[in-house]
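Late entry, evening session. Most of the bench is empty. Finally got around to the prediction I had been postponing all week. Sequence below, unchanged from the version circulated by S.P.
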Amino acid sequence: MDKIQLVWADDEIELLQPHILFLNEKGYQVHKAKSGDEAIELIREKQPEVVILDENMPGLSGLDTLSQIKGLNVSLPVIMITKSEEESIMEDAIGSKIADYLIKPVNPNQILLSLKKILENKRLISEKTTNDYRKEFSQIGLSISDQLTFSEWCELYKKIIYWELEIEKSTDKSMNEILKMQKSEANTQWFRFVEKNYLGWVNGKIQPPTMSHTVFKNKIIPEITKDENTFLVVIDNLRFDQWKVIQTRIHDFFKIDTEEIYCSILPSATQYARNAFFSGLMPSEMEKRFPNLWLNDEDEGGKNMNEEEFLREQLKRLGKDIKFSYNKITNFNAGKKLSEGLANLMQNKLNVIVYNFVDMLSHARTDMEVIRELADDEPAYRSLTLSWFEHSPLFEIIRQISEKKARLIITTDHGTVHVHEPTKVVGDKNVNTNLRYKTGKTLDYNKKEVFEVKNPSDAFLPKQHVSSAYIFAKEDKFFAYPNNFNHYVNYYRNTFQHGGVSLEEMLIPFITLTPR
């Protein structure tokens, strides 16, 4: 096996020969340099995998050498060795992105441990992750059943997402395939669980979890009764795994008080779930109480244009006479404008910010095509989410909220699922276009592949016609029409959709945070 190439720069390098011989025996080829200048030449010539650098050398100092090394190769790991324990030197070295920092005298095992930590870190973590998941695989498999309670489903889903994110970092792709199969089985059982319990939940026959129409009353009202200003940020389409990805960037500004999951109503789509969120009502209740504000699938016009009015009415109904603001962000410039004027919102008890994440990625009519091109699998979708968030005005808004010492709630209206398998549906020209749910009066479909609600009033859904029904796609399926079937399937397969019954769409994050 080829030895790992290593450059070691120290003006007393000959005194370190025992250390060098020890490393040679452990599989390292050490190239010696007596000065910073020699080290730079050797790095150009040998292209080492790591550099050991003495901080205190005559001529070109260790820190100056480090600066030049980073100029040659910013990702080349450098271990700094010094006699000094001065904090300023450590800070300079760490600020220059060294990989490790050792203080003389060092022994060979210290150096070996540092090298292993740097060079074998990814492999060791990958091996441990794989072994740990193997141990938990059986336990997760045994716990996947439709006999779980809702809170048990939430914990199981959190566990699956944890392993999904961990295994994503692993080099063992076989484990990734095993986890995919396990997640698929979980979605099969979740569908059965929803099919058995959903109508009981919404009709009060079974103790329901917190859902879209009760989350404001159950979760948000208790938060805004506290002394601080509260910002409620509703990021559309934010799945729990996407939250875990952006959490790493929010951690610098906020500490998490609670990390919970609530359940989207069906359809798990913006028109229904987000309106229910802000109104505190189920869709048929909104249609009855606010006929001038609610629009059905067949109606012309924007379906989420009255969220502020719904919120105002809900606060009044809950007896909360508070000053609040409502801001919907659908493009970069609107986000920038809100960021620049955030100080003006501090006079309000509650500030609601609806951030249309998908619209931030692209124009509304092409969002599906753009996302499919940029992210055709789960890891790429998460990566795209993080990249968008880091460069969005929302990131700056959250930083400012922290500076102003206001409380923060982050949540969403529903998630999305990566669809793969088509299921045929036939309907008339008035059937809605959503790929994960359909409503109409003449629907023909495979009953085994859908959750059907023959009487919409049973699920508190609007009934547009006497014979109207709703069907919801299960697991990773999407509805396709028989005419031009293959073209339709090829176009929509491997896209991210919402509206149906899956863990990803229905089990969604609700996070409360306190500024650091």
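Two things to note before I forget:
Residues 173-202 form the longest helix (30 residues).
The chain is about 45% helix and 20% strand.
Will write this up properly tomorrow.
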